[in-house]
């Protein structure tokens, strides 16, 4: 019986498969040896060369021992043509094996060959492998550059053979992501868009673009700050919405039009759609920023109200621009063109005007990474997480003492600790106020700074000043979900729970993956509307439900379920055994007495 034929996959996931496409047991370092022999074309290499390539960090004797062990583990790999790999005392020789790098042969032969090459290239040569440092890593870098050059040459030399214009656009966007100044690729994309911003008739012409902020030409930057690398922008496509696939398809097409338009600009590097799709759902913004180097993310979402877009400056997680666009079945093509042009122009303007912030980020990256780590911890409202977040913000301030977002974050941790401990500790609020004022002094246009000042004023009992500060924060950033949440929370305390829920609904529509504080506030608003079942439902949506135990106990008591009310009372007292209803209600700010009476009634019925 004939033995299996082997194929080595080097793009994307590094693995060896048999003729049936089933992965074969092969150590990763062994697969790296196969990749080198197969792709380099050497077929035979000395043991010494391979040992020092694959284990450069080891002593020579240890590297030789590792090579022997790896080759022994690969001894079962044999085909009908003989062993996959043979070794003598001095050399290692590769047998018969197919390899996916063959997809880069004759790229210019057909559109299908180019499509295969593009698919392999964007998966990345040895992208999943733990590549040894030194000479092997250098060789991998050389191969990646070679594959890029081959694909780019096939694109530039064979534009006329592409019947699939979407494939051609995708390839152009990938290369312009690598180099926004590529003067050979950009004209190809411009020819497909008629030299304007978006596909279709009626798009703005080049002269119109040069008259506005969309020009992005170097001549306009004579008085600009020191030159910084072009920022990377990721346009995150909207997820499927509702039961109308047509509207979703239109929103996706709009994002594609925006991407094409921005790719034609020299002032930024645009992440190709394939990459944007893969990183859209990344939860860790710090890792996202560090790994992909994305400075701005354009988040797009469909809802009953149309297409919502918001541009986020990732280093500080700040929303710098947002807009909502109505999409109706009538005049879809014109709507698509107008929305794409409007959004692309706004993104370009924000990138141009945000140069100073970008340079500051490049000068203090550690401060921004620490700040984003703090935000991640603030997504929960447990006391340990709040204190970890405070440590992150403190670390950010060590790198940049006047960093307004971190000062604002510090204020938030002290204010939340004041709530969680429920002791009426005025010192916590005093420290929170100090940090909030410091954030405002450092950057008076930062919505988060005014938000935290408003929160502190709320808990200090100055409800009017709290609302004024939160009104200012919302005016500075009308689509900033966290500001809307804090504004809503203050409305709960000033006896306007219905308005609070309306504002929280808007905040949740902007931030569907909301932190627990949103649901906690919505639960409080529902309780004061005497919708106790809704209050319970909101607390149940929290990842860490323990901060809502008191509210759950009160809600179940008001519904007459004493068993559940007592159970949640015991849980609440376990985490805060010194809690006293009357002392807490004496310090918690509520504008009208009926709120305190209603909350006291529920807590007393629960046994507090």
Automatic annotation (TrEMBL):
Any one of the GO BP annotations: regulation of DNA-templated transcription
Gene Ontology MF, one: DNA binding
InterPro entries recorded: AfsR-DnrI-RedD_regulator (IPR051677), Sig_transdc_resp-reg_C-effctor (IPR016032), TPR-like_helical_dom_sf (IPR011990), WH-like_DNA-bd_sf (IPR036388)
PANTHER family attached to this UniProt entry: TRANSCRIPTIONAL REGULATOR REDD, TRANSCRIPTIONAL REGULATOR REDD-RELATED
Protein name as catalogued: SARP family transcriptional regulator
Organism: Sinorhizobium meliloti CCNWSX0020
């Amino acid at each position: 019986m004939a033995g299996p034929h082997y194929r080595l996959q080097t793009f994307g996931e590094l693995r060896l498969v048999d003729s049936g496409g089933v992965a074969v047991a092969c150590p990763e370092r062994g697969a790296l040896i196969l990749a080198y022999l197969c792709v380099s074309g050497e077929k035979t290499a000395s043991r010494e060369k391979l040992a020092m390539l694959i284990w450069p960090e080891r002593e020579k004797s240890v590297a030789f021992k590792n090579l022997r062990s790896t080759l022994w583990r690969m001894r079962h790999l044999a085909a009908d043509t003989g062993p996959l790999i043979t070794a003598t005392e001095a050399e290692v020789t590769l047998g018969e094996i197919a390899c996916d790098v063959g997809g880069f042969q004759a790229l210019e032969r057909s559109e299908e060959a180019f499509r295969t090459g593009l698919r392999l290239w964007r998966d990345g040569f040895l992208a999943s492998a733990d590549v040894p440092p030194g000479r092997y890593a250098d060789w991998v870098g050389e191969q990646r550059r070679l594959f890029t050059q081959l694909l780019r040459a096939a694109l530039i030399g064979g534009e006329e053979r592409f019947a699939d214009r979407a494939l051609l656009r995708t390839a152009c966007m990938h290369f312009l992501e690598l180099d926004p100044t590529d003067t050979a690729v950009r004209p190809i994309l411009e020819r497909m868009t008629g030299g304007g911003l978006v596909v279709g008739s009626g798009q703005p012409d080049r002269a119109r673009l040069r008259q506005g902020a969309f020009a992005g030409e170097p001549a306009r930057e004579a008085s600009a700050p020191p030159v910084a690398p072009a920022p990377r922008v990721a346009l995150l496509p909207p997820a499927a919405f509702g039961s109308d696939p047509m509207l979703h398809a239109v929103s996706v097409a709009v994002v594609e039009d925006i991407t094409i338009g921005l790719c034609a600009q020299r002032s930024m590097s645009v992440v190709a759609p394939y990459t944007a799709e893969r990183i859209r759902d990344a939860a860790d913004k710090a890792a996202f920023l560090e790994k992909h180097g994305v400075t701005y993310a354009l988040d797009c979402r469909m809802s009953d109200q149309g297409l919502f877009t918001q541009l986020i400056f990732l280093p500080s997680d700040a929303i710098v621009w947002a807009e909502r666009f109505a999409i109706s079945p009538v005049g879809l093509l014109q709507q698509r063109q107008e929305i794409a042009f409007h959004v692309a122009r706004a993104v370009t303007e924000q990138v141009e005007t945000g140069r100073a912030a970008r340079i500051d980020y490049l000068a203090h990256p550690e401060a921004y990474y620490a700040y984003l780590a703090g935000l991640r911890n603030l997504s929960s409202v447990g006391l340990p997480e709040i204190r970890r977040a405070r440590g992150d913000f403190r670390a950010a301030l060590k790198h940049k003492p006047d960093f307004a977002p971190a000062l604002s974050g510090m204020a938030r941790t002290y204010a939340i600790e004041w709530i969680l401990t429920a002791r009426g500790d005025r010192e916590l609020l005093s420290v929170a106020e100090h940090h909030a004022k410091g954030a405002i002094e450092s950057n008076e246009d930062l919505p988060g700074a005014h938000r935290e000042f408003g929160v502190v004023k709320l808990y200090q009992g100055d409800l009017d000043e709290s609302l004024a500060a939160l009104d200012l924060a919302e005016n500075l950033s009308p689509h900033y979900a966290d500001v809307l949440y804090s504004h809503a929370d203050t409305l709960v305390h000033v006896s306007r729970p219905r308005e609070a829920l309306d504002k929280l609904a808007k905040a949740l529509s902007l931030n569907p993956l909301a932190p627990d504080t949103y649901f906690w506030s919505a639960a409080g608003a529902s309780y004061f509307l005497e919708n106790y079942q809704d209050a319970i439902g909101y607390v149940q949506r929290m990842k860490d439900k323990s901060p809502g135990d008191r509210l759950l106990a009160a809600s179940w008591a008001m519904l007459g379920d004493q068993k559940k009310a007592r159970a949640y009372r015991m849980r609440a007292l376990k985490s805060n055994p010194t809690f006293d209803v009357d002392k807490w209600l004496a310090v918690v700010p509520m504008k009208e007495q009926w709120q305190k009476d209603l909350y006291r009634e529920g807590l007393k019925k629960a046994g507090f």
